[in-house]
Amino acid sequence: MKESISTITTKTVGSRRLRITAICLSAFLFYLIINLFTIQYIKYDYYKDKVYSEITTTSAIRARRGNIYDANMNLLATTKTSWRISVSPREIHLVSKRDGKNYPEVITDGLSEIFSLDREQLLKKITNSKVLDVTIKRAANEEEYKSVLTLIEKHSLYGMVITESSAARYYPENTLAAHVLGFTGSDNQGLYGLEYYYDSILRGTDGHYLYAKDANGNTLPGGYISREEAVDGFNIVTTIDSYVQRVLESSLEEERVGFGVQNRVTGIVMNTSDGSILAMATSSPFNPNTPYELDSVSAEKLLASGYTEGSDEYKKYKRELMEIMWSNKAVSETYEPGSTFKIVTVSAALDSGTSHVNDKFSCHGFYRVGGWRIKCHKTTGHGSGFNLAYGLQMSCNPTMMQIAERMGAETFYDYVERFGYLEKSGIDLPSEAGTIFHDPEKIGSTELATASFGQRFKVSIINHLTAIATVANGGISVTPHLLARVTDSDGNTIREYTSPEEKRVISESVAKTVAEILEEGVSGTGGARNAHVDGYKVAAKTGTSQKFDILDASGNSYLRISSTVAFAPSDNSGIAVIIVADEPTSFVKYGSVVAAPYVSEVLARTLPYLGYKSTAESMETTVGNYTGVTVEDAVRKAGDDNFDTEVIGDGDTVISQMPSPGETVSGSGTKIILYTSEEDKYAVVPDVVGMTLAEANKLLCDAGFNLRIIGASLSGEGEARVCAQSSESGTVLKKGCVITLTVLYYSYGG
After folding, report:
1. Counting beta carbons within 10 angstroms of the beta carbon of residue 701, is it exposed (0 to 12), middle (13 to 18) or buried (19 or more)?
2. For a disulfide at 584, which of 118, 259, 408, 443, Cβ 3.0-4.6 Å?
3. What sign does the dihedral 584-588-592-594 (CA atoms) show?
4. Cα separation of 176 and 570, whole Å?
5. pLDDT for 360-410, tens place per residue?
6. Which element (helix H / strand E) includes 56?
């Protein structure tokens, strides 16, 4: 009995062990199956890539970055690609030994023919198996590169002959539209401007060669696996017009120098019907071909800093200057718009019905609000009994405060929002700054008063111009943009810009009324007369705002921002221009003097170019070429062009003339000096600054010079005075030279 129990116990234990063993084997088998399933199915791609990475190597084929064009298909940015062609003597030696082929001879024959190299010297380089890498050509062109690829594929020279692409972004117009275009980094990625914003479109997708290798990294025989072609980036066609861009940039630079502007001058030209940007610039632009080199103005600031070159302070300041230099001031910075914002205040007052054009106002040089005595720019006041139109034209602060008071904070805030200030403009550029405005519940009587004339809040320049373009466009908002269309390498259009849904902000009748008021302020006796352009209806408003974030030792603001915004034709949607000078150091800092003349110049040169017809005969004339003909023919030809002439010399043929052919002169009385010998006649330039136009014209003509006028109308009399002349008094110049005079009205601020 005991034996039977023992036998049973033994059998039970054995059975239990067998079950445990079976369970363990089953669990292990299940574990193996799960892992095999995971490896073969779930993580198949991961392990495939891992194996491939161990047994293969790649050689990149770089994608070509797309071009950037202006509206007329002028090239603004492109990519210059070159290829470094090299060989690996060590790899050539190992593969030749393994395969029993004379690869050095094959490679030498091919490369010496492609690059016209000395065969014996090249063969000597290739057979030097101690060298890991030998450059055959550092910058091969595309044709040479393709020939090398053919050679590699024909003879399976993978890993022995190596191609490395090097793409350099190139901007053929150098500084033109630099702040709009931006630039790229070393990895072909966009860093600023359109290059950054549209990087995914421009960049493309790199390709590669894939070939097998052994454990030592050597190429396996017949080891070529695949080639994936690069996909080039698409091209961008912008709305920028290179001519308008050059006009704007030259005007901004003249203004910066003429008025000693310390914190850059910025301008934008926009099509008011659709928001397309024709030009956008900031003075002293950098060169995107060499973006890490300071422009001349920034370099002077660095030099004047007193920091030792190479010191931490020097490097830090240089970096700060560089970042400022790259910044697109028209988009990325904010400012207090000052009196140019009065366009919005008046539009809101009229559209809300809280004020009317013929309402009467008074100004005693100030207006009391919330216990504060807030001044008008004209401290003696504008008098009493004038209407709203006059108040806007004369840039009267008390008038704006009174109409804002009638609207109330809630309605005023509503129109600020409707004009788009409380959201970004939506322009297709990076780093757009947002408006800094009062919280609606915190707008008291004082905040409402100062905001009515554009102070104590900040907007971006692009956002402000977009709001003004709404008035120019009959009360309908526009979205500013730089993209016109995207094209492929064959010029086929991939996509075109489509404007967002239009939104009515103010009524068409109000927009028309405001435009008429502004135009009368330019053509009549208003404060924006310096924005006048002969033959065109220009609506304009000037502004001079204080900078409250920088104060003097007494806590007073002393820095100013001088600006002017305008649109023309004022009776039909056309173009709008804004120019903002940040911190002019001249004696006069009013926007009507610092900015308005340059807005006038941009409009005068741009409107005819864009096909807008002038209603006046041009007061400017281009001088013809009267050289190389007899004196008699030259005098007759100049007379046909309505020029007087003076002949100097005893020769029979005209050998030179002043003014030179192609120069522009203004007004009547221009005299062409015709030279028939090497003898030159000189005269001393008189000082005409401060004179009326008539006085300056007579003095210059009597001295033997001709003149060109910018600024106020050529027919402007009375208060219009010469504020600058292109050649300093006392300078000795050849008779007949053209002296450019800047003629402005000084009596009105704004």
Report:
1. middle
2. 259
3. negative
4. 29
5. 999 999 999 988 999 999 999 999 999 999 999 999 999 999 999 999 999
6. strand 56-61
